């Protein structure tokens, strides 16, 4: 069965070292743990695990690093290696090529791994430690400059550039400590602006790839020609979760909805009911169960793999179509809907994807009784499908943890490192302009870890940390 189409992304080493080193390519779920046990301080192992691009150009094609590892992986054992043999052989193989320069960029493999660059990509090199910014009489090049951060922050959060008078006033504050305190004050002011939180504002821009709007089938305000569901409800909950002192995890776990009203300022208000939403409170899991999600990702599907994979990709940053975030479940996939997912070329990914999808079993998309939870949905609405379809459980597994239903799925996801990393990455890309670079990894890790712990998943508090990073404030 073909997997859901991937969404274009630019992430810093966010996924898994999953593939074997002999054709045909076989998933190796034990690889990430073995790699990170050998290199526990590597940037790729700080809350994430190495991507398949460590060893592959495009699976099963190996890059230089993967090709160099292969001869050292249990030589003499039959191919493809079992998970156990691969895990046992990988540490020694990594050590065997640690001093080699497999991509020819002048940096030994171990140094690249420890510095956060890719040992199989000549275009990915370790940070040199040398600033290439040159001289600039206006700013402190290659170090944090509060005046630069002030200009940038007003543009990013308020949508305006500072006037000459504002810059003069800022400089007259004198000490950097006072300037940074003023930056915090101005950030809080801008975070209330419609440019940041209003309709089609910056937060809506962050939400686009998660919601994936299609205007032609939108209902409600700005309805399309075939009005099926109102995705403005999804933007409202997302914006609520990212503003003020709200918990960002609400986007996945909320049992309430959010109503948007007004403009300049736009306001968002939690409510128990919306006329455009049909899932009862006891079955809600934030935007995972919105009418738009059920309409556009469940649609007419019996087993909603596309809905599960989109939530996994959108909110955890893990794209199964790219073999990211695979946590194979024993004895899976079961292929309850007879789609052929037990075929060798499919099973490696579906051993993760299908258990992710089971908790969506009773959430209906289009067709009879649309956009709601229907007990025994498969038995009622798909009587002519495969006889085994009715055996599909509602219990599933996410990130290796069993869950009984979609609400538990959401709670496990929202409390994971992957959710914190993905959330901070969204803002890093919006504000810094790219995914974290190797030389920015230390600041990035510190930011997402504080977001999860010190700031208790409050985006507004995390943004105060982000604008203080050199990645953001150094010209």
From TrEMBL:
Q: Which domain of life is it from?
A: Bacteria
Question: Which first-to-last residue range defines the signal peptide?
Answer: 1-27
> Which keywords are on file for this protein?
Signal
Question: What is the designated name of this protein?
Answer: Cytochrome c domain-containing protein
Tell me which species this is from: Corallococcus coralloides (strain ATCC 25202 / DSM 2259 / NBRC 100086 / M2) (Myxococcus coralloides)
């Amino acid at each position: 069965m073909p997997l859901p189409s991937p969404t274009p992304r630019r992430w810093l080493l966010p996924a898994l070292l999953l593939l074997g080193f002999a054709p045909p390519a076989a998933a190796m779920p034990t690889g990430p743990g073995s790699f990170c046990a050998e290199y526990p301080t590597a940037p790729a192992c700080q809350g994430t695990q190495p991507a398949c691009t460590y060893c592959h150009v495009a699976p099963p094609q190996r890059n230089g690093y993967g090709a160099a590892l292969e001869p050292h992986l249990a030589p003499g054992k039959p191919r493809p290696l079992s998970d156990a043999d691969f895990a046992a052989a990988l540490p020694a193989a990594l050590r065997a090529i640690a001093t080699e320069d497999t991509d020819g960029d002048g940096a030994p493999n171990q140094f690249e791994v420890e510095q956060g660059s890719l040992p199989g990509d000549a275009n990915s090199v370790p940070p040199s430690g040398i600033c290439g910014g040159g001289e600039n009489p206006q700013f402190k090049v290659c170090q944090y400059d509060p005046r630069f951060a002030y200009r940038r922050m007003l543009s990013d959060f308020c949508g305006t550039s500072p006037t000459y008078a504002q810059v003069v006033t800022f400089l007259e504050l004198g000490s950097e400590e006072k300037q940074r305190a003023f930056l915090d004050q101005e950030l809080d002011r801008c975070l209330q602006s419609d440019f940041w939180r209003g309709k089609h504002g910056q937060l809506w821009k962050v939400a686009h790839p998660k919601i994936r709007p299609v205007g032609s089938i939108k209902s409600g305000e700005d309805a399309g020609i075939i009005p099926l569901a109102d995705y403005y409800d999804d933007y409202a909950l997302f914006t609520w979760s990212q503003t003020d002192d709200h918990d960002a995890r609400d986007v996945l776990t909320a049992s309430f909805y959010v109503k948007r009203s007004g403009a300049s300022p736009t306001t968002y208000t939690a409510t128990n009911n919306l006329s455009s939403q049909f899932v009862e409170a006891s079955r809600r899991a934030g935007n995972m169960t919105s009418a738009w999600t059920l309409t556009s990702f469940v649609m007419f599907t019996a087993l909603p793999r596309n809905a599960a994979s989109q939530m996994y990709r959108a909110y955890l940053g893990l794209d199964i179509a790219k073999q990211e975030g695979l946590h194979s479940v024993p004895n899976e996939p079961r292929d309850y809907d007879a789609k052929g997912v037990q075929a060798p070329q499919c099973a490696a990914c579906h051993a993760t994807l299908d258990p992710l999808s089971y908790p969506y079993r009773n959430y209906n998309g289009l067709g009879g009784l649309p956009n709601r939870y229907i007990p025994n949905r498969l038995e009622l609405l798909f009587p002519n499908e495969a006889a085994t379809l009715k055996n599909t459980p509602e219990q599933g597994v996410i990130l290796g943890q069993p869950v009984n239903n979609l609400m538990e799925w959401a709670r496990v996801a929202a409390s994971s490192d992957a959710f914190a990393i993905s959330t901070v990455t969204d803002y890093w890309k919006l504000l810094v302009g790219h995914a974290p670079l190797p030389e920015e990894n230390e600041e990035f890790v510190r930011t997402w870890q504080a977001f999860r712990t010190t700031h208790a998943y409050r985006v507004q508090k995390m943004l105060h940390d982000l604008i203080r990073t050199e990645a953001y404030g150094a010209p």
